[in-house]
Amino acid sequence: MKYLTKRFAGQSFISWGLQLLLIYLAWLVTDHKIQNNLWTIGTAAILVLLIYMSLAHDNHSRTK
Q1: How far apart are CA 15 and CA 43, in angstroms?
Q2: What is the rounded CA–CA span in Å between residue 53 and residue 11?
Q3: pTM, full prediction
Q4: Both ends of the chain: CA-CA distance in Å?
Q5: Contact (CB, 8 A) for 60 and 20
């Protein structure tokens, strides 16, 4: 688990992974592989909140 909290370019690997998931979700919508409906928008919103929380945690642990 310590591997996921290591930093690369100022962000933890968890933050990078969540951002890549959001990009992949957007890619699937633009390629029409999944529909742009309420479930997709909700999933994107949850990913954005998790990214925000992860980046806030990275910033908090960096200032300690």
Answers
A1: 16
A2: 12
A3: 0.81
A4: 20
A5: no
